[in-house]
Specification:
The chain is α/β, with parallel strands linked by helices and 126 residues long. The two termini are 26 Å apart. It contains four helices and five strands; from the N terminus they run H-E-E-E-H-E-H-E-H. It has one domain (2-125): Rossmann fold, CATH 3.40.50.2300. The longest helix has 20 residues, at 59-78. The chain has helices at residues 2-16, 59-78, 100-108, 121-125; strands spanning 29-30, 36-37, 45-52, 86-93, 115-118. Pfam families: Peripla_BP_6.
Length: 126
């Protein structure tokens, strides 16, 4: 159930990148096919973020979830991507340390449309 919900949320997020209406004056420009390009969305790619634990106590769980995300991206790209754009993942490791995302998020945020994975309750509480 949770996996289905997570996939549905990720798909909804990605599909919003296919919209042809801008959300305001945030600097987006019209790209190929009339689709607005902006942070994380170019004429060629849609980049999504993954903030996960690759080295801490939840490494085994997080690695499995990340591999699932990568399989989803590969499948979507094999089917032509989303709106003719390939999906890409920007993956960062917070090591399940609650303070690390404070420095990682500002690094990843300008590169991604949104996050499809965020592991750890101390991390999400920040």
């Amino acid at each position: 159930m949770r996996r289905t919900l997570a996939i549905a949320c990720a798909a909804a997020l990605v599909l919003t990148a296919c919209g042809t209406k801008g959300g305001g004056s945030d600097g987006g420009t019209e790209g190929a096919g009339g689709v607005t390009t902006d942070v994380g969305v170019t004429d060629a790619d849609i980049t999504l973020g993954v903030m996960t634990d690759q080295t801490g106590p939840f490494k085994a769980l997080s690695t499995g979830i990340t591999h699932g995300n990568q399989l989803w991206v590969e499948d979507a790209n094999a089917d032509g991507g989303i709106c003719g754009r390939d999906l890409k993942l920007e993956i960062v490791d917070h090591g399940y340390k609650a303070d690390t995302p404070k420095t990682l998020y500002p690094q990843i945020e300008p590169k991604v449309l949104g996050l499809v994975q965020l592991v750890g309750s101390p991390v999400t509480a920040r």
